[in-house]
Design a protein that fits this description.
Elements (H helix, E strand, L loop, with lengths): L7 E6 L4 H4 L5 H10 L3 H4 L4 H10 L2 E8 L1 E2 L8 E2 L2 H10 L4 E6 L5 H15 L3 E4 L1 H4 L9 H10 L3 E4 L21 H7 L5 E4 L6 H10 L3 E4 L10 H8 L6 E2 L9 H10 L4 H16 L8
Parallel strand pairs: 1-2, 2-5, 5-6, 6-7, 7-8, 8-9, 9-10
Antiparallel strand pairs: 3-4
Helix pairs in contact: 6-8
Length: 293
């Protein structure tokens, strides 16, 4: 242990090395520079050794790498991160990375079977979805086969909630991530571990209401700097929601070290802080079966 008293587990990370960048569209640079204000060094790409160095500096023990699917294949502004890119990173550093399978809800049962294979054959630990990129809200019927499979496999699914953060000039994306859309899903699938990531801004109080109502709904704190989190969200983490929120950065959207510093500045009580940074994600994803304590 170095600067921090808790080693964190980052549940939302985008692989950003040369292998990954070869599969991402050109708008990424403008998005990261103009909207995210990422450093020029980061925008150029972050190889795995450098990512691990940055994780170590922030006392982040492990990260979940997303094989993201951002919109339908074939559109120049959309992309699917190949599983092989994530697989290679995990193979090189199996003690540091876990994999999350990105869902394309338009691909039907072919995608359901591919998702099952990723869990059973590749060792992935959960699913990830972007409602905005497909303009299909979380309660749309096209997602339902994947919820069934998540229940069968006993793995969580995380979704971006809140507004769409990306605007590609030739592919404007409507915001369909209102947290209330988790309500019917949680009712229909009480066994499903459903995680709404990205804080839910500008509907954070609605997201908190969903996590308060449903035992199987959780929230993620990624993609928005902690210094700008709504006061109600900080209070939720620190009090009655201390078992319901998991840590993430959505790297490279947030920098590892800056995010840890800003969480320290929130003045969270020791137990809720540890639950946020580590204990909750271990419990929700069952990481103890991999020896993570």
């Amino acid at each position: 242990m170095s600067e921090h008293d808790v080693q964190a587990i980052d549940a939302v990370v985008n692989i950003f090395n040369a292998d990954a960048l070869a599969n991402r569209p050109a708008w990424r640079d403008q998005f990261l520079s103009e909207k995210i204000r990422a450093s020029s060094e980061t925008i150029k790409g972050v190889e795995l050794d450098e990512m691990l160095r940055r994780m170590d500096a922030a006392d982040i023990e492990r990260s979940f790498l997303i094989a993201a699917k951002c919109g339908p294949l074939g559109h120049p502004s959309c992309f699917h991160m190949p599983l092989e890119v994530v697989d290679r990173a995990i193979a090189q550093h199996p003690d540091r990375f876990f994999g999350l399978y990105g869902i394309d809800p338009t691909m039907g049962m072919k995608e359901v079977r591919a998702f099952q294979s990723a869990i059973e054959d590749r060792g992935y630990i959960g699913a990830h979805g972007y409602p905005h990129w497909f303009e299909l809200p979380i309660d749309h019927a096209r997602w339902y086969p994947f919820y069934t499979k998540c229940c069968e496999l006993d793995v969580p699914i995380q979704f971006q909630i809140g507004q769409s953060m990306v605007y590609a000039a030739d592919y404007p994306i409507r915001s369909v991530g209102q947290p209330i859309t988790m309500d019917p899903v949680a009712c229909d699938f009480p066994e499903l571990k459903l995680i709404g990531i990205h804080v839910g801004i500008p509907w954070t109080d609605e997201a908190i209401a969903m996590a308060w109502k449903h035992k199987n709904v959780y929230l993620g704190c990624d993609a928005h700097s902690p210094k700008y989190w709504p006061a109600s969200f900080v209070n939720y983490i620190n009090t009655y929601g201390q078992d319901k929120v998991i840590f993430g950065t959505d790297f490279p959207v947030l920098d590892f070290e800056r995010t840890r510093r800003e969480i320290e500045d929130l003045g969270l009580r020791p137990d809720p802080k540890r639950k946020l940074l580590r204990d909750n994600v271990i419990r929700i994803y069952g990481l103890d079966r991999f020896g993570v304590k």
